[in-house]
């Protein structure tokens, strides 16, 4: 596990989503699992999401993959970035397990970048938390200001780069060092010689999306017969007025309607959407394929790197979410489900145990048909 210079409690209370933290030797025995050549090979695949950022004569250029070998021969500082490398390389997916103190449903992906000497993507900020793990070589990180919606950007058609970078700190990272950067904090990484960096990104759902889903759930339960109730009537002194008390009553009734929607489905289904098979192997199978596998015996099950799986207890049941869908099962499944989420694996005896539980085959079939599990028959 990632070795913090402060306690986990202090990190979550004082740094997480608040301020940057340098974590020297965060992974002391880290051996970068992807070389620059291997990263370039992934970037040449049509299914990979890759970019090259070039700084030529102080002008920023962006190129999108897939790339060919000649795209990696450049005479200016440049950076190759490949998204979702954890979906391609199991050893990169393992890096996600180094941060177990952050809820698993918050993780997005592990992006890997390569840069030659002076290579950079420019001064920018992200809308998500990120742990920047240094792989091969050395990278210098400059930390700047907190950026709000009004922060001026360069006039660039493709890149969201800051027009002004106000440096507040600077760190030099070697292999195994980590820099945590909260959302909207400006940062600027510059390679000192050839280097690779592993960016572990944690995204949060937009409040607008959460509100939309919760509202949709409330609308389904309200029906068309539920009407606005007038506040305590009182004579109107001004004809035609929509009174403040009417507006406040409507607002209160809407809040109460949303609060009465207690099912966790609206959130669980939203945050597990996006098993993005466009950028990795399609592990989802049909109901018939899942039933056949479960009937013929399974040696072990492994959580797919791209899988988004979470669960919650609600009104005596266990709700399981995967691939934007949900299933309610008995809480007797909880120990095995926690084992799967913790170790990413269920052994053959554990699979047999789950199949012996009531609705256990249904739960396994649910995860298989949502592309969440890889099977060894």
Automatic annotation (TrEMBL):
The keyword Metal-binding applies. Residues 78-219 form the JmjC domain. Pfam families: JmjC_2 (PF08007), WHD_ROXA (PF20514). This is Cupin. One of its GO terms (molecular function) is 2-oxoglutarate-dependent dioxygenase activity. InterPro entries: JmjC_dom, NO66-like, ROXA-like_wH. Its cofactor is Fe(2+). It comes from the Bacteria. Keywords: Dioxygenase, Iron, Metal-binding, Oxidoreductase. SUPFAM superfamilies: Clavaminate synthase-like. It comes from Parahalioglobus pacificus.
């Amino acid at each position: 596990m990632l070795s913090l210079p402060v306690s986990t409690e202090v990190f979550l209370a004082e740094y997480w989503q608040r301020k940057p933290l340098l974590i020297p030797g965060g992974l002391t025995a880290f051996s970068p699992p992807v070389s620059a050549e291997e990263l370039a090979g992934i970037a040449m695949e049509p299914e990979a999401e890759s970019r090259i950022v070039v700084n030529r004569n102080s002008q920023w250029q962006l190129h999108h993959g897939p790339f060919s070998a000649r795209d990696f021969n450049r005479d200016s500082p440049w950076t190759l970035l490949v998204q979702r490398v954890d979906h391609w390389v199991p050893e990169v997916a393992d890096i996600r397990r180094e941060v177990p103190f952050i809820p698993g449903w918050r993780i997005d992906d592990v992006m890997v970048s390569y840069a030659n000497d002076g290579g950079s993507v420019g001064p920018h900020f992200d809308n998500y938390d990120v742990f920047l793990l240094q792989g091969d070589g050395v990278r210098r990180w400059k930390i700047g200001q907190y950026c709000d919606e009004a922060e001026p950007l360069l006039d660039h058609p493709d890149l969201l780069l800051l027009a002004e970078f106000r440096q507040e700190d600077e760190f030099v990272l070697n292999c195994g060092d980590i820099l945590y950067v909260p959302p909207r904090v400006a940062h600027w990484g510059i390679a000192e010689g050839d280097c690779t960096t592993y960016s572990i990104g944690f995204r949060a759902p937009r409040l607008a999306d959460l509100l939309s889903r919760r509202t949709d759930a409330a609308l389904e339960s309200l029906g068309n017969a539920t009407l606005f109730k007038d506040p305590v009537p009182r004579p109107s002194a001004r004809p035609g007025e929509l009174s403040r008390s009417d507006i406040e009553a409507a607002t209160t009734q809407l809040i109460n309607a949303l609060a009465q929607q207690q099912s966790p489905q609206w959130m669980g289904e939203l945050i597990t959407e996006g098993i993005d098979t466009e950028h990795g192997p399609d592990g989802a199978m049909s109901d018939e394929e899942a039933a056949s596998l479960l009937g013929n015996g399974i040696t072990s099950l492994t959580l797919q790197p791209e899988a988004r799986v979470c669960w919650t207890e609600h009104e005596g049941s266990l709700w399981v979410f995967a691939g934007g869908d949900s299933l309610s099962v008995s809480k007797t499944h909880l120990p095995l489900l926690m084992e799967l989420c913790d170790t990413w694996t269920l052994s053959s005896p554990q699979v047999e145990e789950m199949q012996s539980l009531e609705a256990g085959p249904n739960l396994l079939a649910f995860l298989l048909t949502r592309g969440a599990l890889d099977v060894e028959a």
